[in-house]
Specification:
A hairpin with a 2-residue loop joins β8 and β9. By secondary structure, the chain is of the alpha+beta class. It has one domain (14-124). The strands form two sheets. It has a five-stranded antiparallel beta sheet. The protein has three helices and nine strands; from the N terminus they run βββββββαββαα. Pfam families: DUF4313. This is DUF4313 domain-containing protein. It comes from Blautia obeum. InterPro entries: DUF4313 (IPR025462).
Amino acid sequence: MGQDICIRKDEKPLGYDWECGHEELYVRVNMYYNGSLYIGLWQKQEECEEKLELFGDLTIGVMGFLRPGQAIISDCGAKAKVAFIEKYKLGKVVGKRKINYGSYYVAEFNLARLAQLDPEGTERYLLENGLDQKEFKAN
């Protein structure tokens, strides 16, 4: 995601409450190098309100055991991230997984919902993973 990330004309931010306050964020979908699901949280740039800058990662890249549509939730502020996922029906937590020295939430993401928030990113993810795009088209 090295290019400018812009806000779509019809796009509205989602409220994100965390230990440092409230943010208005936008969801962007992509992939890690191994094809696993990446979901980033982006905020408006101060100097240009049509462009976004990265606020933080909702997911982390992990190789192996995940099915398409599943991802590991970044442990930094995990409780707020899980609440955000549930509030906006982005998916659901399906368990915890011990990885290296930590224990992380595993989420099964609602790809149709992600397609509503980031149609282009979700379509790229579906194509790259050989998933049926018709099933997940945004309404």
